[in-house]
Amino acid sequence: MTERRRFLAGGAGLALLALAPLLRAQGRGMTPIPAVPPAPTLRLPDTDGKIIDLAQYRDKVVLVNFWATWCPPCRKEFPSLGRVRKLFKPTVFEVLAVNVGEDPDAVFSFTGNTEFPVLFDRDAKAMAAWSVKGLPTTFIIDRQGRLAFRATGGREFDDPDILAAIKQLLS
């Protein structure tokens, strides 16, 4: 191996080492929200055009995920939304996937039929009201309709740390 190749290989190895903590951190837990403020209003159409209101889920823990099909971490985490949805009874837990700025037909070609409602924030007003700065962003709402946890960036929602947070809110 030439000296240049050894140098490049060593640099690539150092870059991977530097990224390792970030790669491990993705998919781990959610951050508690201090003071547990009330969740902002969320009233959006679903794939059938029916208006879904977060208020109708009072007495349930709700995971609200803001996402888009053009967002690689969103696409990667999306299947885990269905997996976490199946782990809890529908009488106590729900997932709401809020697509931001996209056409329902394009979204459906990615999602197909889901075990949970997919909502459409076509003008990004809900995204602004929820202070979402980047996609994906996820919130867990407690049974009283308050913001309990938040995460920005990709997650696997059936991760043990996230499941523990949901179970804590259900108890």
Give an overview of the whole structure.
The protein has 171 residues and is of the alpha/beta class. The protein has one domain: Glutaredoxin. It contains five helices and eight strands, in the order αββββαβαβαββα. β4 (61-67), α2 and β5 form a beta-alpha-beta unit. It starts with a helix and ends with a helix.
Offer a quick outline of the entry:
With 171 residues, the chain is an alpha/beta fold.
Percent of residues in β-strands? 15-25%
Q: What's the name of the CATH homologous superfamily?
A: Glutaredoxin
> How many β strands by DSSP?
8
Estimated helix fraction: 25-40%
Task: State the order of secondary-structure elements, H for helix, E for strand.
Answer: HEEEEHEHEHEEH
Low-confidence parts: 4-25
Q: In CATH terms, what is the architecture?
A: 3-Layer(aba) Sandwich
CATH topology tier name: Glutaredoxin
User: Whole-Å distance between the termini?
Assistant: 60 Å
How would you write the strand order of the largest sheet?
Answer: 1-8-7-4-5-6
Give the C-alpha Rg. Answer: 18 Å
Mean pLDDT: 88
Task: Supply the CATH class.
Answer: Alpha Beta
- Give me the secondary-structure category: alpha/beta
User: Could you describe the largest sheet, including whether it forms a barrel?
Assistant: 6 strands, mixed
Overall shape: it is globular
- How many helices in DSSP terms? 5
